[in-house]
Amino acid sequence: MTSRMFKFGVTAASACVGSVLASYTLDRWNSPHVVNNAQTLPPKRKRTLPPRGDQIKSLMSGEEFDVLIIGGGATGAGCALDSVTRGLKTALVELDDFASGTSSRSTKLIHGGVRYLQKAILGLDLEQYRMVKEALAERATMLESAPHLTHPLPIMLPVYQWWQVPYYWVGIKAYDLVAGDRNVKSSYYLSKKDALELFPMLKKDKLCGAIVYYDGQQDDARMCLAVALTAARHGATVCNHVEVKELLKKDDGTGKQVLCGAKVKDHISGKEFTVKAKCIVNAAGPFTDSIRKMDNPSVKSICCPSSGVHIVLPGYYSPDQMGLLDPSTSDGRVIFFLPWQRQTIAGTTDLPCEITHNPTPTEDEIQFILNEIKNYLNADVEVRRGDVLSAWSGIRPLVSDPNKDDTQSLARNHIVHVSPSNLITIAGGKWTTYRAMAEHTIDAAIKACNLKPERAEAVTSYLKIEGGQGWTPTMYIRLVQDFGLECEVAQHLAKSYGDRAFAVSKMASLTGKRWPIIGNRIHPEFPYIDAEIRYGVREYACTAVDMIARRLRLAFLNVQAAQEALPVIVDIMGEELQWSKEEKERQIKNATEFLANEMGHSVNRTSKERIPIKLSKEEIQTYIKRFQLIDKDKKGYVSINDIRRALKSFGDGDVSGEQLHDILREIDTNMNGQVELDEYLQMMSAIKTGDVAYSRFARMAELEEQKHEAANLKQKISVDRSGGGL
């Protein structure tokens, strides 16, 4: 034991001293990309956001752009903002929607990487150290540039063995040290008592204490969208749902073939046209190789995709303002357990996968995360499969560096590559460093394509992102007082839109109530209101999926709630975009498929089908009786008309057809449009075992039984026989 303690003491001390010396040395001779804030400020942003139609006209105008960016994720949007604020004529096209891929499916953290720093120090890896240091500096920049969409988040690292206390403490202090004056807040140690007070769900047995450190948290999809909108306000032409079909080349006068534009297709209008550009940037994330092969079909692939699955659980699984880090899972990975938007995110996995536009979470990955969570929560918190509200998979585009001879090893950081035809490829990296990645990319583009920017260096390090300029932490109070919004709704609008929340509020409809005066919710459990749908269209939302997944985050927070809100959302979008009845039906169908396949709805349903019936004879008899009370015609199954009749008898006469179908779908695992007895018994068994948290059909059957018993009681004791009263 003494020998072990000595070894860990030496390791911890060495790590601390090494990080101090490394920080000091590197800060002296390795300070890349310092921005001179005294240089010319970027042009003032436009007062109004150009409509999507105007953006498409700009693309079709035939004018030559300085830079054409392919990809509307975090990196692509960052490149557009960096380019346009340097004074370059900039365009961006995205096949799907802004942040529709990996950029909306992250862990929502803005971090340097505690695990990377551990490897850098213990392995004396200078490259990995630089990567962490850059990420920590960019973390501070993100928190400053978009204060409404980002915030510091304390993360607890529970310690269950005494020798780990100094080891982790020194490691986390080294993390603070590397951040230097860009640190968010200082880390600290907590006793067992204090740790349980802050995180009462934590497992108490053998807990020695905890280390708390700070990273940042963000709304990733809205952050990416805000960066793209900021670029648009500065004059960039940004268009979602525009696919690059072909890259065009010309002779540069020396016999060399260089890129000069692209043939593209607008999937909303169906039009195909050519966009001219002096320089093309490939920021396609996992689809990097498909663009590289448009440029040169014989080029070797560099992307090695990895799937990361996250799940969302109810908010009571974690405190409102404290995350949890499991530094070593059963298979050596790291699991984060974080509060987000009043729910709890848990993840992630890390498995090789195929590149696809529609990644899906698997039951095995969901169960892995649930099993790891159980190891850290106390016995009072029953981790149930039925509590999984949503699940998604994001593809992390790890890359090998084509600039090096050895292309087999994966690059730890991002890479910028210039092809012989001047295709600028930016690949790898992570969300936190999107701005630095964009800066390095545009630097390379200017050099390779001989561009003439108004400003030689980037100005994005001190630029406020859309909504951040006039935002204050108490801005929501003005929304409540000036517009008559609910406090919860006002807080949500302020955090999601920043100073643009006032423009959103002006679009809200009257409630017809004494309070709130305006702001009709699109779902009773969430603070999203009708005005956000109308404003979302002005933020270039073109489909129902754009709306439920990336303008609102409903699909990520609760897949069932998103399904229930779809009809209202599609109706409002239909008014704004003049959709026909057929188009509305198509949008609902596409959004339903998205929720089923990409947001975990179908895997949730499949998990219910696998559940064996574990009920006692008495319970089975009770549930058969309830089922028969709803099936009044003795058909042997419950139809949608039976559900409608039961709800009307409870006074819910205004239930829409879509809501009736939602109730039916949540229990109709056979998908034949009716509820059979075995499906009902399976659902009740799942509720009993905790695999399903709640069922509206089950509640309806219970109320039907109570109503039946109350009616029987009245018949047994009539007024005449009871003596007429007292």
Automatic annotation (TrEMBL):
Keyword Oxidoreductase: yes
Main location: mitochondrion
Substrates-to-products reaction catalysed: a quinone + sn-glycerol 3-phosphate = dihydroxyacetone phosphate + a quinol
Keyword Mitochondrion found: yes
EC assignment: 1.1.5.3
SMART domains xref list: EFh (SM00054)
EC main group: oxidoreductase
SUPFAM superfamilies recorded: EF-hand, FAD-linked reductases, C-terminal domain, FAD/NAD(P)-binding domain
Subcellular localization, as worded in the UniProt entry: Mitochondrion
The name this protein goes by in its record: Glycerol-3-phosphate dehydrogenase
Species this chain originates from: Drosophila rhopaloa (Fruit fly)
